[in-house]
Design goal:
By secondary structure, the protein is of the alpha/beta class. The chain is 45% helix and 15% strand. A seven-stranded mixed beta sheet has the order 7-6-5-8-9-11-10. A four-stranded mixed beta sheet has the order 2-1-3-4. The protein is elongated and about 75 Å long.
Length: 434
């Protein structure tokens, strides 16, 4: 099959209605497209069958994870060019980003569809990669289903995460003094910023919801003298965190539990941190989440909710999680606009005292994680699977661009369970941090 790349480039430009911004190299070694541009490598025409049977993001994701598709050159540049093309087209037509591929169903493009079918070969749907979560059934965000979703993302090996995250073992947005700050310093500064926002003092009791590998409770106990409880649904995280705490000599002041926030019964706490966990709660459960944390705090206690936010859409009922993220990264995860998060915290009884947007900080963090993964690529693929490593590389790089382009953001919301007296405990000009 001669010049598959040239035929694919012509097809893509006919469907998209604009020149293709990347170069294509096909399985027959043919190449086409602008010289010097990043190269979309189609290693096997099975990738085309994936797109035909699942047009849009899921078909592309399956090709990437399986290794049928790859990028040569600057990954960020390639993703930015391709995402920008599809994003702008979708925005102009008020249609999903997958519209460019679904356009093949239009009558005027039937010849292009037949050409693509001929290039794809045998009309048999390829088996999805093993790393894909199969379609789930039953109600969202039950205790069991949430635990399974968390396990999919976090129980992929502590050694793998150590390669990506570095010694801090913090899996959330760092807080950067400048782009030249080290990742470890930026993560330490983020933990300390949260401790200062919570106004932690020696002897207080802190709850860290979604404690990960224990970094927040370790910092708070060591630097601020608190007693801390960290909860996670990941058995692997809990084992790792307990080991770190024992080695630090803080086992008498920190407890790590494998527990859902809905199962905690030993309130009250003086402060609660929830760092990068609320994205897993879900729209249907968020009011319950906010009310549960409110009930766990003593009057005057503070909550620091650190959460990724998406841009609002005209009809919120049409919002759906991207297929790639749902099937490969964060099953059942959902993002909300920051305004909705603030409203629901207030509806639960909290007084919201501060909202700090740190979108650019997450882009810097993700680029560091991608660099760590690429530096240790062979070992990372060995510790998990080549497909899993490809999932993490794609989602982190694409997420970095989404933060940079203001498609998503991240916010720290400081809220207080202010008592009836109105005494919040927040000082005048409290914003003395960072």
């Amino acid at each position: 099959m001669a010049d598959a790349a040239g035929r694919l480039t012509k097809l893509a430009e006919e469907v998209l209605g604009t020149p293709l911004p990347v170069r294509i190299r096909a399985w027959d070694r043919s190449e086409s497209g602008p010289p010097g541009a990043p190269v979309l490598v189609i290693r096997h025409r099975r990738a085309l069958r994936r797109l035909l049977f699942k047009p849009g993001e899921l078909g592309l994701a399956r090709g990437w994870v399986a290794g049928d598709l790859d990028i040569e050159g600057d990954l960020y540049e390639a993703l930015d060019l391709l995402a920008g093309l599809l994003w702008e087209r979708a925005a102009s037509t008020k249609a999903p980003r997958a519209a460019a591929l679904r356009a093949l169903a239009r009558p005027e493009l039937r010849a292009a569809a037949r050409e693509l079918l001929a290039l794809a070969g045998a009309p048999v749907p390829p088996t999805p990669p093993a790393e894909e979560v199969r379609r789930r059934r039953g109600p969202l965000h039950t205790l069991r289903r949430d635990k399974e979703a968390i396990s999919h993302h976090y129980d992929v090996g502590n050694d793998f995460y150590a390669l990506v995250l570095g010694p801090s073992m913090v899996y959330s947005c760092a807080y950067w003094e400048s782009p030249t700050t080290s990742l470890e310093d930026a993560q330490r500064d983020k933990l300390d910023l949260i401790c200062r926002k919570l106004a932690l003092k020696e002897g207080q009791r802190l709850l860290d919801v979604g404690c990960g590998w224990g970094s927040m409770v370790l910092h708070a106990a060591r630097e601020y003298g608190v007693r801390a409880v960290g909860i996670t649904l990941s058995e692997e995280q809990a084992t790792f965190a307990r080991k770190r705490i024992a080695e630090a000599g803080l086992a008498d002041r920190i407890e790590i539990r494998v527990q859902d926030y809905r199962e905690i019964k030993d309130e009250p706490f003086d402060a609660i941190s929830s760092i990068g966990m609320a994205e897993h709660v879900g729209r249907a459960r968020y009011a319950e989440y906010a009310s549960a944390l409110y009930a766990l705090l003593r009057p005057g206690g503070r909550l620091l909710n650190h959460q990724i936010a998406r841009r609002p859409v005209a009809d919120e009922e049409t919002y759906r999680v991207d297929d790639f993220i749902d099937r490969y990264v964060f099953p059942d995860g959902e993002l909300a606009p920051v305004g909705r998060t603030v409203a629901q915290l207030e509806e639960a009884g909290f007084e919201v005292r501060d909202v700090e947007g740190i979108r650019e900080h997450y882009a810097l963090t993700l680029r560091q994680w991608v660099a760590n993964l690429e530096k240790h690529w062979d070992e990372a693929a060995r510790l998990t699977s080549p497909g899993r490593a490809r999932v993490w590389r794609l989602y982190m790089a694409a997420s970095a661009l989404s933060f940079e382009r203001n498609r998503i953001g991240v916010n720290q919301v400081l809220a207080v369970r202010t008592p009836e007296s109105g005494t919040s405990g927040v000082r005048l000009r409290e914003r003395s941090w960072g």
